[in-house]
Amino acid sequence: MSNIKVLIADDHAVVRQGLKHIIERDSGIEVIGEAENGNEVLERVKVLEIDVILMDIEMPEKNGMETLAHLKTSNPNLPVIILSIFAEEQYGLRLIQSGASSYLSKTCPPSQLLEAIHKVANGGKYITSSLGELLVKNMDNEANKPIHESLSNREYQIFFMIASGKKQKDIASELSISINTVNVHRANILKKLNAKSNSEIIRYALQNDLIK
Fold first, then answer.
1. How does pLDDT run across 22-37, given as a tens digit for each residue?
2. How far apart are CA 36 and CA 61, in angstroms?
3. Segment (H or E) for 96
């Protein structure tokens, strides 16, 4: 049986090297490529035979959420594991529902990461017990979903950045979009949340345990 071929996507070289070191301890897995952003991921997919993509959320040019959406259209059967610093409550549910095969914290044990790679490479999903509880809770509350669930993926991302205290100009720079685009998304977020200011967005996030 051939090795599982993994592509690592993260904008930090030291993170990519650390992940590569962990992954290649497993003789059944090999890293066949790396990417620094979502655009590079989409290019690598065209020329490499990849079994699993291991991808961060926050990347320049095209972030993980956008890249996942493109992959689910162009390569719907290619498993994607999201490895992130963000809590499951923030992005886990949304990314699993958007087609990710697993969502893991960057603080997870190496053994868990390797287990997840094997499972998704064989067509399964790897869901942690805590994320599984969130999924069940979300299903049970289908009729009473919180307002933030109505936000688009891009709005959701900007919502968290605002809730974390980031200014519009910094958000624009980080996401490589214009400040006008950020302001349009911010206006949509305010309207959907029935909020009037960034401070009310922060208050909403705190009240819903989305940030600490």
1. 998 999 999 999 999 9
2. 9
3. helix 93-97
Range of the domain at 172: 146-207
In the block, which residue shows the tokens 């205290």?
Answer: 165
Instruction: Give the pLDDT confidence of 72-110 residue by residue, as tens digits.
Output: 989 999 999 999 988 787 788 888 988 999 999 999 999
With b meaning 16 or more CB within 10 Å and e meaning fewer, what string describes 66-81?
bbbbebeeeeeebbbb
Quick one: 126 and 185 in the same domain?
no
Are 198 and 117 within one domain?
A: no
- Residue 37 has what DSSP assignment? S
Amino acid 109 reads: P
Model-level pTM? 0.78
Total domains in the fold of the chain: 2
Domain end residue (candidates: 116, 139, 162)? 139
Q: What is the spatial distance between Cα 81 and Cα 212, in angstroms, rounded to a whole number? A: 25
* Cβ–Cβ under 8 Å, residues 81 and 104: yes
Q: d(Cα 125, Cα 46) in Å, to the nearest integer?
A: 24
Collapsing DSSP states into helix, strand and coil, what is residue 107? coil
Tokens, residue 178: 């214009």
Q: How many residues does the chain have?
A: 212
Neighbours of 33 (CB within 10 A): 19
